[in-house]
Structure formats: C-alpha cells, structure tokens
UniProtKB/TrEMBL annotation:
Protein known as: Alanine dehydrogenase
Native source organism of the sequence: Rhabdobacter roseus
Record InterPro entries: Ala_DH, Ala_DH/PNT_CS2, AlaDH/PNT_N, AlaDH/PNT_NAD(H)-bd, NAD(P)-bd_dom_sf
Taxonomic lineage: Bacteria, Pseudomonadati, Bacteroidota, Cytophagia, Cytophagales
A GO molecular-function annotation: nucleotide binding
Keyword Oxidoreductase recorded: yes
EC number: 1.4.1.1
Secretion signal span: none
Length: 376
C-alpha cells in the first residue's frame, strides 16, 4: 500500500503521525511511504532520518495526498485540506466528528474512508489510541492550570502545593478516566488537595485504592459539583463519551459561584467541551475569561510537547496502521472488531452512532458498508 504522511497544519500542532522507526516497519513489509518534507522537524525527526528509514520525501502536502492510498495523520483535516482528500482514500487520524459539523459534512462529501483513532475500542471498552494522548493531556492540564493560577497570568495567585503554614490549592477533577486519573496524580504529587468526581462507583472505589491520601473521591451529580466549584482553585474537565459530544457539567450560572481568578482547563474540548462556556482555543492564544473565570481550552494540548506525544502516539497506532496497510481497510475492519469500531464515515455514509446522533444524520450499520464493499 502507498502510505502518505503530511505535515500537520493545524495551529501549533507540532506532532507527526509516523516516526522514522515506523517508516522502517512499513518498508520492511513491502509498503511505500511518502513523507512531506519537514513533517517531523517539530517533533525532533529530520528529513534525513526519514530517508534513511526508506521514505520518499515530497515537497508539498498536495503531492502527499495525491499519491497516497492511506493518509496517516495526527489531527483532523482542516478546511484547506478538504479538497485534497480523494474518494475511497483511507484517512487514519483523530477526527472528533461530533464536535464539528463542517468537518463531518466535508468528509461525507469527499466520500473518503474515515477511521478515527478516538473510537477504536477494545472488548473491555478501553480506547487504546486515545489513552496515550489522554495521559499526556491529563498531566499537562495540571501544568497549565498551575501556570494560569499565577497572578501575572490572571489567576488567583495560588501555588498548587502551598508551603508550610499555608494551605495548598483545591483542585477539582471532573471524570475518573485516563485524563482525570493522570490529572489527579499530578496535582496530588504537587501537594494540592484534590477531589475527583465520577458517576461510576466501581471506578471511584478503584481510584480510592490507588490514589494518595490527599485525593478524595466523590460521586458526581449537579448538586455536588455546584458545592465543590465554590472552593476550587483549579477545575479540570476530563469527561468522555466515546465518539459523542461531551456533556456540559459546568453551566454558565455556576461561574458566578466561583472565586475570581479560578482556572478551568477543558480537556474534553476536542469533543465539544464539558463546560457550557467552553470554545476551542490554540497554543498561540490559549485562554479567555468569562465572568472573571479563566478558561483554558486548547484542542490539541499534546501538540505542545511533540517529542513525547509523537512517540507515545505512534507506539499505539503503528500496529493498527500496519494491519490496515497489510490487509486493506475492508478486510482489516472485518477481522478486527477494534478497528471496525474506529470507522466513522465510509463512502459518504455515517457508520458511527455518536456522529449521526450529534447532527441528526442518517445512520448506516458498519456491517452493511463492509458487506457492500466486499461484493464490489
């Protein structure tokens, strides 16, 4: 198969979808890999390293899309890329369709095969291609939150861990999944008082067992959240409904309950955000203020630490990408249920329920699409 790796052009997205080591694996299995010049530079990988691994370097993004049967990316295509996408072309990347109707409509119109990292799902319901970036984003959320709590950044002027004789900050973590767990670990490690809320009692029991003494677990509901936000200095939103829009757990009226200079970090912004007042920001312009509350809603947080993020992501995606290249997407998705759940849009048809529900679009069962394709 012909693999294309374009340079990411989303604002301040410094990751790359394939490392030179990944190129080597594709080439060993007989595939051709075309990488856009400079695609790996921000992640610390030179064009020469890609050449030595067996890739062919192309000067423009147009050339990469033009030649590739499978495009491997990190983030969803942006508007300037839409016209480059060909019918039947396989795109393997993060899409987060439920948070963007224009993107969804564009991919329907292009009649590409859109396989989303974030909905590849194991039988235990874990999301293997979302986990590594959730780990990075969860840890980064505390770093960024701590920074914006500083007075020069507009925050309350509070040190997360406090000092002798001064209480530490209160950190509220919404969601006990990967993001929430990593955020709680980091905040607790810095000495903050942490409260993590979730709707799953078994998950809370697990967290209660593994977390240090300065982390409390609380069952999540609107009443409890309203009480907790009043004392929180930093609020981290890490809730996830796979493939669907995130629920708004912090409503606009709750901001009035918070102290001025409180910081909210919405890690769920890729899926629409879990704060009612959230809208996506960039690393170039990461925050905005609503009712004296600082909102940090960068949609590609791991892009700020591209070396770590690229290695973590490709460790997870490479085995799936090799299977797709080796068998073709139809056979791979027919045989591998994890990959099959990653299919979101195929040949203009929405085959993932969360996406169809988000925009009230017609839904087609994956089995129907695979069955049709198998007989073409």
């Amino acid at each position: 198969m012909i693999i294309g790796v374009p340079q990411e052009i989303k604002n301040n997205e410094n990751r790359v979808a394939l490392t030179p080591a990944g190129v080597t694996e594709f080439v060993k299995q007989g595939h051709s890999v075309y990488v856009q010049q400079g695609a790996g530079a921000s992640s610390g990988f030179t064009d020469q390293e890609y050449r030595e691994a067996g890739a062919t370097l192309l000067a423009t993004i147009e050339e990469v899309y033009g030649i590739a049967e499978m495009i491997i990316k990190v983030k969803e295509p942006i508007a300037s890329e839409y016209p480059l996408i060909k019918e039947n072309q396989l795109l393997f990347t993060y899409f987060h369709f439920a948070s963007s109707q224009p993107l969804t409509q564009a991919m329907i119109e292009r009649k590409a095969v859109c396989l989303a990292y974030e909905t590849v799902e194991k039988t235990d319901r874990s999301l293997p291609l979302l986990v590594p970036m959730s780990e990075v984003a969860g840890r980064m959320a505390v770093q960024e939150g701590a920074k914006y709590l500083e007075k020069p950044m507009g925050g309350r002027g509070i040190l997360l861990g406090g000092v002798a004789g001064v209480k530490p900050a209160n950190v509220l973590v919404l969601g006990g999944g990967i993001v929430g767990t990593q955020s709680a670990k980091m905040a607790a490690g810095l000495g903050a008082n942490v409260t993590i809320v979730d709707i799953s009692l078994p998950r809370l029991r697990y967290l209660e067992d593994i977390m240090p003494a300065n982390v409390d677990t609380v069952m999540s509901n609107e009443y409890t959240i309203r009480q907790l936000v009043q004392q929180a200095d930093l609020i981290i939103g890490g809730v996830l409904i796979p493939g669907a829009k995130a629920p708004s757990l912090i409503t606009r009226d709750m901001l009035k309950l918070m102290r001025p200079g409180t910081v909210m970090v919405d890690v769920a912004i890729d899926q629409g955000g879990c704060f009612e007042t959230s809208h996506a920001t960039t690393h170039q312009d990461p925050i905005y203020v609503v009712d004296d509350i600082i909102h940090y809603c960068v949609a590609n947080m791991p892009g700020a630490v591209p070396y770590t993020s690229t290695l973590a992501l490709t460790n997870a995606t490479l085995p799936y990408a090799l299977q797709l290249a080796g068998q073709g997407w139809q056979k791979a998705c027919s045989q591998n249920e994890e990959l099959r759940k990653g299919l979101n849009i195929v040949h203009g048809k929405v085959v993932y329920r969360g996406v169809s529900d988000a925009f009230d679009l017609p839904f087609t069962e994956v089995s129907e699409v695979l069955g049709h394709v198998a007989h073409v």
